[in-house]
């Protein structure tokens, strides 16, 4: 598995990215290859709907699907906006985090495609303000920050920049992206220094680098 942000035609199929969730609620991008077809974006989303086959594919990586079983997807992409209609028992999600993960996973998956800049939702054919546990599905959604860590009280979000870090999950085959707020410049040195700090104290993720490892230098050329 690898966190990728591009689609392309490969021999025997099309490379695409789906988003699953792990047992701790982190969203995890997973690269897939699907048959070349009309409606690749819809076919990609269909892989995220709970079903025996999809659940098994996710479980092989220690992950879970994010869209409730039986949900039907209708997708219309026009002028950079993807309007998705979710038909079925979307209200069956157990809590607000599951709702937020579904919404975020759909937005992240669709905005991986060059033709999609924003996403809007219909629920059973109608515009809705919120899902049962309070998650907003109104308005227009753009690509967001994945697995954003809680901000420090000493670092107001409006004053922060962010770096994307990657840490091993509880399954050895999964690398989990985490967005961390930082002081100063969000450059290569800052990213490596934050990686060396490891996951937050509350996180179940693993260190990516050995304990005691330090940064000598990080350079960027060409």
Order of helices and strands: EEEHHEEHEEEEH
Strand sequence of the main sheet, in spatial order? 4-5-6-7
Mean pLDDT over all positions: 89
Question: Main beta sheet: strand number and arrangement?
Answer: 4 strands, mixed
Rg, Å, rounded: 18 Å
Helix count, DSSP H or I runs of 4 or more residues:
4
Which structural class matches the secondary elements?
alpha+beta
> What's the N-to-C terminus distance?
27 Å
- Say how many strands there are: 9
Helix content: 10-25%
Silhouette: globular
- Into which percentage range does the β-strand content fall? 25-35%
Q: Which regions are unreliable across 5 or more consecutive residues at pLDDT < 50?
A: 1-7
Task: Walk me through the structure.
The protein is of the alpha+beta class and 222 residues long. Helices cover 18% and strands 26% of the residues. The strands form three sheets. The protein has a four-stranded mixed beta sheet with strand order 4-5-6-7, covered by helices on one side. The longest helix is centred in the middle third of the chain and has 16 residues, at 96-111. It is globular and about 55 Å long.
